[in-house]
TrEMBL record:
It holds the Pfam family Carb_kinase. Gene3D superfamilies: 3.40.1190.20, YjeF N-terminal domain. Residues 222-494 form the YjeF C-terminal domain. It catalyses: (6S)-NADHX + ADP = AMP + phosphate + NADH + H(+); (6R)-NADPHX = (6S)-NADPHX; (6S)-NADPHX + ADP = AMP + phosphate + NADPH + H(+); (6R)-NADHX = (6S)-NADHX. The keyword Cytoplasm does not apply. Its cofactor is K(+); Mg(2+). In the N-terminal section; belongs to the NnrE/AIBP family. Belongs to the NnrD/CARKD family. This is Bifunctional NAD(P)H-hydrate repair enzyme. Binds 1 potassium ion per subunit. Keywords: ATP-binding, Isomerase, Lyase, Metal-binding, Multifunctional enzyme, NAD, NADP, Nucleotide-binding, Potassium. AMP binds at residues 405-409, 434.
Length: 496
């Protein structure tokens, strides 16, 4: 899914209107209708709906929604922010059409009975031009204190689509946001996402051809991406058709991480998986992952990396350690390899201590830092959006794929595009989840997916398996091994 800026979204709406595909009033009605249908499918008319509206078009959506709810006998009260601004043209029409009287409010002079209350935030949408202050700030502050179900229309009031809020900025805190046609980019960054709650993208009937023509460098990964690019297994194939993944890592006390990566590479369909680890780990690896082959790279730590065959894809880093001999072995390996590989964890920590090594990373390799590892590699930034933009620059500069892991993992490609992921959950915020991702991406790369696809599909599958593990085991009880187990659910779904 494309992620467009608020200006582009407005442009799409304007063009739909100019080409007489729709009128602005019809767009408002269809937005309100989409919200109404969504609400109706989830909440009964036992609730009391308190709809807070501004005088712009976001408020118009709110007033049209209030009318639709009222006409179907829902309990609705509409509140309108008292301000010197006039209603926008369409909002005035919807204000006139609302059959009930409304409350004009200033500051905190309004009451909401908390029991069974649903607060709908239609104060400001994408037309907000600066931070909330004065009366608007007071209203939102009070709404944030009320104990009720809170739903924002299009975007939480006080938030911008294309930039992030500062600390202490007043923003409506929604449980759910009903956003129109596109994810706003800010929803994919922690600092803003905390205000938006669960995001639901509603179709309001904007012309899909116009959307198709809009240019962007930011996308959200969707299931269709996976469906379209997934390579089905030919019935006549043999193990030689599905690549050789070489997983390298592990050290004394950290054999578990390389075992997880090995199991993950096996579970995404790789033809042959080899694990290069210290001798110390061979028994564990051969017992837990008997399908993989083992080659020794040292005693307790990795000291020398000699890969005993050709045509392979390396994934290196989990549990690798940063012993002096390991660093040397790693550097030597980087000097000798030319094919794209996956670099994670300690492989990145070693590079952080010697930035010249960045230049040795083979083109189109994939690095998978979490935000702290990214910071150690490329420096501090003031926000996750700035970090993402720095990653875009670095991905271009070194011609590598950078995966910044987190709730909404961001993938930055050498050509300058960013793909965000929305699968996964907080049950994955545990040691070992990242090792699974390394194994998945290495396995896909080994099977002949190019670096871009291996990463996009890998990150998506990893989160999706995490979501299945959540259903099966709960967020608390799921483990990295549970994620690996649930990879089969993802592939079964795909093969249905
Ligand atoms: N473009 C689209 O595709 C569509 C947009 N719609 C709705 O329209 C919204 C955008 O509407 P508008 O552009 O009218 O803008 P908004 O309704 O977001 O806000 C504009 C109003 O807020 C006031 N305002 C702006 N910044 C303020 C601030 N910091 N403090 C106090 N007042 C402030 C302005 O004076 C104006 O009255 C969207 O978020 C969406 O809800 C939908 O109705 C239909 C389709
Ligand atoms: N709250 C969350 N929501 C979604 N995914 C998450 C969340 N927390 C962690 N993850 C995912 O789990 C993985 C954690 O990786 P990482 O931080 O390297 O952990 P480790 O090194 O312990 O395995 C990443 O892929 C990340 O995207
Ligand atoms: K809003």
């Amino acid at each position: 899914m494309k992620i467009l800026t608020s200006t582009q979204i407005k442009e799409c709406a304007n063009q739909s209107i100019q080409s007489e595909i729709t009128t602005s009033l019809e767009l408002m009605e269809s937005s309100a209708l989409a919200c109404f249908e969504w609400l109706k499918s989830r909440y009964s008319n036992e609730h009391n709906y308190y709809i807070f509206c501004g005088k712009g078009n976001n408020g118009g959506d709110g007033l049209a929604l209030a009318r639709l709810l009222y006409n179907e006998n829902f309990n609705v009260e509409a509140f309108i922010i008292q301000s010197s601004a006039d209603f926008s043209e369409d909002t005035q029409i919807n204000f006139d059409k609302f059959p009930k009287s409304v409350y004009f409010i200033e500051g905190d002079d309004f009451e909401v009975t908390e029991e069974k209350a649903i607060i709908i935030d239609a104060l400001f949408g994408t037309g907000l031009n600066k931070k909330l202050k004065g009366e608007a700030e007071k209203i939102v502050s009070k709404l944030n204190e009320i104990n009720a179900i809170k739903i924002s229309i299009d975007i939480p009031s006080g938030l911008f689509a294309d930039s992030l809020p500062e600390e202490n900025q007043i923003v409506f805190r929604a449980d759910e946001t009903l956003t129109f046609e596109f994810y706003k980019r800010s929803f994919l960054h922690l600092e803003a996402a905390q205000y938006a709650g669960k995001i639901h993208v509603l179709d309001i009937g904007l012309d899909k051809n116009l959307i198709e023509n809009e240019k962007t460098d930011n996308y959200l990964i969707e299931y269709s991406h996976f469906e379209k690019n997934y390579k089905r297994r030919n019935p006549f194939s043999n193990k030689g058709n599905f690549g050789k993944a070489i997983i390298i890592g592990g050290s004394y006390g950290k054999i578990g991480s390389i075992t997880l990566s090995t199991l993950s590479a096996l579970r995404v369909g790789t033809g042959l998986v080899f694990t290069g680890a210290p001798e110390y780990g061979s028994l564990v690896l051969q017992t837990i992952a008997p399908e993989a082959m083992f080659f020794s790279c040292g005693d307790k730590y990795i000291e020398d990396i000699q890969i005993p065959f050709e045509n392979y894809t390396i994934g290196i880093g989990p549990g690798l350690g940063t012993e002096a001999t390991t660093k040397m072995a790693f550097e030597k390996m980087l000097e000798n390899e030319n094919n794209p590989m996956v670099l994670d964890a300690d492989a990145l920590n070693i590079i952080s201590e010697n930035k010249d090594l960045l230049n040795l990373i083979p083109k189109y390799s994939i690095i998978t830092p979490h935000p702290k590892e990214f910071e150690r590699l490329f420096g501090k930034t003031n926000s996750t959006l700035e970090q993402c933009e720095l990653a875009r620059k670095k991905a271009k500069e070194y011609e590598i794929v950078i995966v910044i892991k987190g709730h909404n993992t961001a993938i930055l490609l050498p050509e300058g595009t960013c793909y965000y992921n929305a699968t996964g959950n907080a049950g994955m915020a545990k040691g070992g989840s990242g090792d699974v991702l390394t194994g998945i991406i290495t396995g896909l790369l080994a099977q002949g997916y190019d670096s871009k696809l291996a990463t996009i599909l890998g990150v998506y599958i990893h989160g999706k398996a995490g979501d299945y593990a959540y259903e099966k085991f709960s967020q608390e009880s799921m483990t990295a091994q549970g994620i690996i187990q649930c990879l089969s659910d993802v592939f079964l779904e795909l093969n249905k």
